[in-house]
Amino acid sequence: MVGLHVSAAGSLDFAFDRAREIGANTFQIFTRNPNQWKFKPVTEGDVAAFRQKRKESGFRRIVDHMPYLPNLASSEKSTMKISRFTLDEELKRCDALGVDYLVVHLGSHLGKGTAVGVSNIAAACNQALAASEGDASILLENMAGQKNCVGARFEEVRSILDKVDETQRMGVCLDTCHVYAAGFDLASVEAVASTMGLFDEIVGLDRLKVVHLNDSKGTLGSRLDRHENIGEGKIGRRGIRAFLHHPGIDEKPVIMETPYEDYKTMDKSVKLVRTLMQ
Q: Can you list the domains of the chain with their CATH numbers?
């Protein structure tokens, strides 16, 4: 399963057409404007069209990404309230549309400490899952290591998972750029084996549900969250190939979130990743 983050502009179901245009058989979308708090509800028509396109496409896994504004790690009351409301509503949208996974950024504890941030994120996930009547899972995305962020270390991701009650609906989305920026090497076969061995030991490869396959503009441990096209960054083709060949990775949806490209270039990216998988 190889795809990219694609636009759902015009109608949510258009994402299937755009994915197929670039040769993808999975994708990630925003179901709403990611830079605004306000949003329109999905209609019965939206749901029917999306589910019909899904049936026609045969796509096995579909991914949604949370908007950018929420900070689930925050202890500030107004931010916590609207962030949790956004997570609740986005998970319900996934349930309605039949989307499999909702990827969430973990946010910043704003100086209150990692333990506080971990508890806040877990509480938000527990609340959203309790309010959900569907099957969509929440996936925690590892962070790049920015100041006060939660989730750059595998131990922090595991701590959140351990505090959520509905374990069967929780998992991880591993972003390769973030892994590398946080100081875990992926640039060689040996480095991938070491880093993914550590991930398996602390979090568990069985909890890994989706991969964000991004090369890194920043150097190892730079804490710079800047994606680069596959093979053109500091991880490089050798590292990306080694990662894709690590046991179990080829069974996961592999989603690229590379810098803005036209559809012709996106098609090349999909073909390149499939080549590196061989």
A: 2-277 (3.20.20.150)
